[in-house]
Amino acid sequence: MKSTVPATRVTWPTRSRCSSVVRVPCSHSWRTSASSSEADVRFTLNLPPPALPTGGWRFLFHPSEAFSMKHPLILCSALVVSTLVATVLSAAAAPTLADFQAQAARSKLRLELPDYPRTADEISNRTTAALAEADAALLGLASQDAGKASFASTFGAFEEITGRVSTWANHIGTLAESHPDKRLRDTARDAGQRIEAWGIALEYREDLYRALQRWADTKPALDAQQQRLVDFTLRDFRRAGLALPPAERQQVELLRKSLSELERQFDVNINEARAPLDFTAEELAGVPATLLNSPGVKQPDGRYRVMANITWHVAAVQDNADNAEVRRRVTVARGQLAREKNIPVLAKLVALRAEIARRLGYATWADFRTETRMTGSAAVALKFEEDLVKGLQPKFVEEVETLRQLKAAHTGQADARIEAWDTAYYTNKLRKEKYAVDTEALRVFFAYEPTLRGMFAIYEKVFALKFTQIEPPYVWAPGVQLWIAADAGSGEPIGAFYLDMFPREGKYNHFAHFRQNLGRTLPDGGYQLPVSVLLCNFSPPTADKPSLLSHDNVKTLFHEFGHVMHNLLGRARYSSFNYAGVPKDFIEAPSQMLENWVWNKAVLDTFAADYRDPSKKIPAETIEAMIRAREATEGVAYRRQLSLGLMDLGLHTLSPGDAWTTDVVELTNAVGARVSIPPAADTAFVAYFGHLTGYDGGYYGYLWSKVMAADMASVFEAAPNGYLDEKIGRRLRDEVYAAGHTRDVAESVEKFLGRPRSQKAFLQYVGIKE
Ligand SMILES: [Zn+2]
């Protein structure tokens, strides 16, 4: 579920995608001369009372992070896990959960597993009880005797109460995505919605805000982490409008409800947009049979129906159709999706956001949205994007010229130009003709078990850890494994993680990390250890073959397990500052950094070997060819990303006055034309840009973290042992993972880098060599 400001303190753990999904591509205008005061009237009438996220709470528990890869749902085979389980169970002195718990207790660490509910009724009942208990505790907080209040009875209590609800939401959120029983999954989702609504209402609790503010006003002596918790908690209430006079605040709440309704409409219009185009077989020359033979594509008149609203249909045509006019028609139809309905909605959305931001004391919506991010302001985000546009310019120009020459040779027209409908086609041609790598053939090097063990060995070495599989007291489905991570030096447990790695009917069908228990200091001074779950969907083994991963799967595995590491290695006192407590434009960076490992021969050679003959490693030239193929079109791809980020920032840095009069299509098409391949005439990509609800004012974050990931990876690259360097790994563990958000992330990253941040490593990564 998307929300105006998704980072509520207590929300249902909806997943955010790790990889950005870019919908392909505009002129239509909607103008209004309405002033901002008219806007109030227009948007505050006849409002339904939707559950409405508002303020800017940093999230306490997070979403999982998910890749957008579709996998078929295949009934799970538990075969895969049998080997490892057998190995562990047959070992004479296999450690048990109790052993690890006893060891943890000796160091004042508490290793507890989630107490997952076993039935749908249990979920309902325990959710009701958890919310009632939290409500009673919050009432106690709000109504306490101000003269006797303390940090523990105010901000400490607030953190504790919301943390408990979040943890419960994490547990049932995972079951909602993975439990084999549909009724249980559905009940877990319903319970999640109750918790989300409860979390949203929390943001408007004036009694809580007053009690907290009253105590903060006494200017108590606090240590750094306590002060930070106080500052952020109050900031988030202010972001919800609670610092405003009552009448003003009610106005903002009403505007937010209007905004939420507009966002919903925008999403619905995208989902409902349809654009069928029929072509003859001859017109579709070059388009793969997978599209032509797909159910519903062949029409009774013998023609083939391409749906411009189905992304893979569009990609199949744009990548492969030899007929340029066919590609043009599909591209234009795509660029006109939802145009008539959504351009007016978007124009109002943008104006309303600008008005809400103004009322909350921000110059623009993007300033409001970035306040809680690393960038901190729209100006910093804009500068970042524009610097990157410049940095990529030579590569972009060079790549476009390469594509243009390919087109000139292909069409016989020396003065050919690359149009919006040519980019994908000639990119694909370039890859096939010049950088052919048979990625399917690489699967034999990545049998699931050696790959998993190989990755574990790498993370164990780099972060000085040891992973041990144990017999789980309970799992929600057969085949789910439980592992304990311990510090390699002291042997102390640092946390636990579950692996649910193969598809199953009804299971979440991407790849994602789900946070379970939150690391935090307990009232008795002990430390509660974090717990994670990985839900993956690797292709299951067959009777004669093990599960064989693609190179892309391996990259995903390294990325997602990076989130497990980030969660398990957090050592902040308050769970709000661990892992997902970091700014949203940073959370992906460490995991994106770890993706670099799978492009490195020294790393791959530690585990990747032909499962039929393990003496065979991936040839160096194959890895080189894959890197060259990746680099060949990164300039065009990232300039496209930048154009989307700049469209978003362009729309959301408008002043309230300008927002009402700006032509959103003209503005965004001009950005597209300046930064990327110019959009096709008479199209309005922005009407179909779904990330404008949810990632609004924050779309830049994908590249922001990617650039930081490359910067951080470069420290390993320069180290004596490269990606396997333990000294650098230790520094990452201490300065970035353990510190979490107990201090500004920029400071942590620079402590790790040992220098200021830079875009240089990213530009090298995309193939710009100095
Ligand atoms: Zn991720």
UniProtKB/TrEMBL annotation:
Claim: Cell membrane is one of the keywords in the record: no
GO BP annotations listed: peptide metabolic process; proteolysis
Domain annotation Peptidase M3A/M3B catalytic: ranges: 321-766
One of the record's GO molecular function terms: metal ion binding
Gene3D superfamilies in the cross-refs: Collagenase (Catalytic Domain), Endopeptidase. Chain P, domain 1, Neurolysin, domain 3
Cofactor(s) required for function per UniProt: Zn(2+)
Keyword Cell inner membrane on entry: no
Transmembrane residue ranges: 73-94
Keyword annotations: Hydrolase, Membrane, Metal-binding, Metalloprotease, Protease, Transmembrane, Transmembrane helix, Zinc
Textual note on the cofactor: Binds 1 zinc ion.
Family per similarity comment: Belongs to the peptidase M3 family.
Protein name: Peptidase M3A/M3B catalytic domain-containing protein
Species of provenance: Oleiharenicola lentus
